[in-house]
Amino acid sequence: MLEEVSVLNIGNVGDCGLKLLSDVSQIIFSTTPQEYYFDCPYQLSSQGPAQTYQDASVNIYKGDVIVMGSYGGFFR
């Protein structure tokens, strides 16, 4: 979520992911997949206790590129 000018707030769950690339194609920030073990990612659920998610706030600038993916294919 872009809450303020040039600040991107990120919430990440399981094997979804996000990479932030600078205008010169360098990786500035990358989330880490969250799995119990291979092919068993954390998930949101209304059953039982909530599972951990990763929070981050990252400064972004004109020309930066946000790449997002889901279902494990993004990091593998």
Name some characteristics of this structure:
8 strands; 76 residues; 0% helix
Question: Would you summarize the structure shown here?
Answer:
A hairpin with a 2-residue loop joins β5 (35-37) and β6. This protein has 76 residues and is mostly beta strands. The protein contains no helices and eight strands.
Report what the structure shows.
This protein is mostly beta strands. Helices cover 0% and strands 45% of the residues. The chain has one domain (5-69). It has strands at 2-4, 7-12, 17-21, 27-30, 35-37, 40-41, 54-59, 65-69. A 3-stranded antiparallel beta sheet has the order 1-2-7, with no helix packed on it.
- The total strand number stands at 8
With strands numbered from the N-terminus, the spatial order across the biggest sheet is 1-2-7
Largest β sheet strand count, sense and barrel closure? 3 strands, antiparallel
Domains, number: 1
Q: Show unreliable segments.
A: none
